[in-house]
Specification:
Layout: E1 13-16, H1 20-31, E2 36-40, E3 54-56, H2 62-69, E4 74-77, H3 84-92, H4 101-108, H5 110-120, E5 127-129, H6 134-143, E6 147-151, E7 161-163, H7 167-179, E8 184-188, E9 192-202, E10 208-210, E11 214-219, E12 222-228, H8 235-252, E13 256-265, E14 270-276, H9 286-289, H10 294-302, E15 316-323, H11 333-343, E16 348-351, E17 361-369, H12 375-391
Length: 404
């Protein structure tokens, strides 16, 4: 374990990216007597609004990365888009980068990730690299079913993922990407029951910790709801998912939080879908539903502190994302909060300081329940609260003014 510092100043963690993940990591840093430094593209970025230690610049600018890293005890990430070679340069210059670039590349490049997982014997969908459109025909014949086209780099929240309708559509999508110079891969479309997420953390010392496996509910490629723990998940499968997450964190050399997004197939098996090496949307429930939040845990990990307890604080926690409505309501956010707290006082609201735009994640709501059988009721309340905050309308038709 890292030698304990006797420095009079608190450690400095620098996070590349000034989005909501950095903002919530800064909230956790405050409780530890620390300040998170962020490299933000704009002073209006969510994290730049709240931390006093902001470096403005692009994550693709080596000079900006150096300025963010100067004097920091560890450099970490709010997103995976920093060029690998720039991170390798920083490491060569003595910067402590967590997760290290040789680990992070597996969250940056889906083809590198798929090949590594295959080599490790991890359960994954069948896949292939694509050199030309004709590769689509051969792969479709091999899997005997529909295929998914994914960009090798840069996709998130449903971007860069196309569920093709048929062979002609798949050829058309691949041809379009290749014509634009975008590398893609093909995967078989999995017959799945639902999507799960195994969230774990690992320290440089090699300590690992896992939260309960959760169910993630997607709409249009964006996570809308997280149910913690995943309802009705057999203990054996939950244990398998947690152990898989911990094994991959160790095998890949991850330091910090790792989210392993999983498919639970209709046959009752697990397949790895994606990896994220940072705090993750599927872990937002831990802010109010676990002993240690994912954001505090990420800081503990990159500073090589002993990791925190990951036990849930309640039998069930539901997180619902607040996604911008098609058009922003006339009612201001302050009045929406006023009505929400009057009606659902147990709602824990987390806003990100972002302008409302259609479909944009502007916040989330956590609600905890005291009975595992209560998951449907808690889910309904969390989703109703999130919809109210984004649309200023109650999904059950309730009229606050009409009810006095």
């Amino acid at each position: 374990m890292m030698a304990v510092s006797n420095s009079p100043r608190p450690p400095i963690v620098a996070m590349i990216g000034g989005g909501q993940l950095a903002r919530m990591t800064h909230q956790a840093a405050i409780a530890l007597g620390q300040t998170l430094r962020v490299l933000a593209a704009s002073a209006e970025d969510p994290a730049a609004q709240v931390t006093p230690d902001v470096v403005l610049g692009a994550h693709t600018d080596l000079d900006a990365l150096r300025r963010a890293a100067a004097g920091a005890d560890a450099l970490t990430f709010d997103h995976e888009h920093v060029p690998t070679e720039m991170l390798e340069t920083l490491v060569a210059e003595g910067v402590t980068v967590y997760p290290p670039p040789e680990a992070l590349v597996h969250a940056q490049d889906k083809l590198v990730m798929r090949r590594k997982l295959a080599a490790l014997g991890a359960p994954i969908p069948r896949f292939t690299a694509v050199a030309g459109v004709d590769d689509v025909d051969a792969f479709a014949e091999l899997v005997g079913g529909p295929v998914v086209v994914k960009t090798v780099r840069g996709g998130y929240d449903g971007r860069g993922v196309v569920l093709t309708r048929d062979l002609a559509h798949a050829r058309e999508v691949v041809a379009g990407y290749l014509a634009d110079g975008v590398a893609v891969l093909l995967e078989e479309r999995v017959s799945m029951r639902r999507e799960l997420s195994a969230l774990v953390a690992r320290s440089p010392f090699g300590q690992g910790a896992a939260w309960p496996v959760v169910e993630t509910v997607q709409r249009d490629g964006i996570c809308v709801t997280v149910l913690a723990p995943a309802p009705g998940l057999p203990d054996a499968l939950a244990g398998e998912a947690e152990q898989l997450g911990l094994r991959l964190a160790a095998e890949l050399g991850v330091v910090g939080v790792l989210a392993v997004e999983l498919f639970e197939t209709t046959e009752g098996t697990l397949l790895v879908n994606e990896l994220a090496m940072r705090p993750h949307n599927s872990g937002h429930w831990t802010m109010d539903g676990a002993v240690t939040s994912q954001f505090e845990q990420h800081l503990r990990a990159v500073l090589d502190y002993p990791l925190g307890d990951t036990r849930p604080l309640a039998p069930v926690t539901v997180m619902a994302n607040v996604l911008g409505a098609p058009s922003a309501p006339a009612m201001g956010i302050d009045e929406r909060l006023h009505h929400l707290f009057g009606r659902i006082p147990e709602a824990k609201v987390h806003f990100y300081g972002k302008a409302e735009r259609p479909g944009r994640k502007v916040g989330h709501v956590n609600i905890v329940g005291c009975d595992l059988q209560d998951v449907d009721r808690v889910r309904e309340r969390a989703e109703r609260a999130a919809h109210w905050l984004s649309h200023a309308e109650w999904t059950d038709g309730w009229d606050g003014h009409g009810h006095g």
